[in-house]
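subagent[fold] <- orchestrator: predict structure for attached chain, return tokens only, no commentary.
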Amino acid sequence: METKDRFETEEGEGKPRSHYFIGDMSRICNVSRKTLRYYDEIGLIPSLRHDYNNYRYYTYESLLAVPVIKYYKQMGFSLEEMKEFIKGDSSNIYRSLQHRFRTKITELETEQEAIWRKLASVKDWNSLIHEAETVLDNDFREVGTKFVDTSTLLFHDQTFDDDIKGSIINLDFTNYVESLGNETTGPVLIRFSSMRDRVENRAQPVKILQKALLPVGEEHCYRFGGQMMVSCYHIGPHENIRETYRKMSRWAREKGFELADEVFERYVTDYWTTSNSAKFVTEILIKASRPRAAE
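subagent[fold] -> orchestrator:
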């Protein structure tokens, strides 16, 4: 049995063995022979050799070094760092260890932040795909009103000149975000200053909007939402989005709503997700005032 094998000596049981062959080490410590040979090669757990047959063997102290190495590995330390810790040659070993551990804490916090940003981006994108799938499966094209929660978005002023793909996959916006040392997530939104110009594909000032993953200064922020808006999903290519705008305008007149001049397009799925424009899902959002009182 393994327990007996570990503590058996020539004198009997109850004490550690005087030596362990590499197979013993591998089995008892759950470490491959290849890994043990590498540890031997770099001097992390050096083996000894029998005088009479040159067989590699390890001491009980070598065996107990394995859990320590596994724990340092769990914390993310390199093998070279482990050698330094285990040897303890520094004149002030604890001060040296504290320095190493503080450095590791900073390193891991940076990694944690990077992983958080990746996770947030993946979750947001997955949410958009789920939203698009739901819209497509149920053919949601009805016009309605909804309260849009307030969100703070990073913005970049540009001029729209009927290049919708270049506005959504936006090189200038990407460079701008990078210049701020930031990253973005979630859907791209475009604020068009004039619905009429958008319908007629005329050039106009726009704001490219997206959620920033890191804090940004007020001068870079745009407050979106926080009010009732008229909403409608447009399914399919952006080239025929004017038909959805016209449908929304007719609906607003029938319901007695007044629509603002500015409009927002929220790109749920688009060129970022698929080249099949028939599967594009865009939500159009327009600020609306309360219905006028009946005359």
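orchestrator: received. Logging for downstream: Residues 231 and 285 are 5 Å apart (CA to CA). The chain has two domains: 2-87, 123-288.
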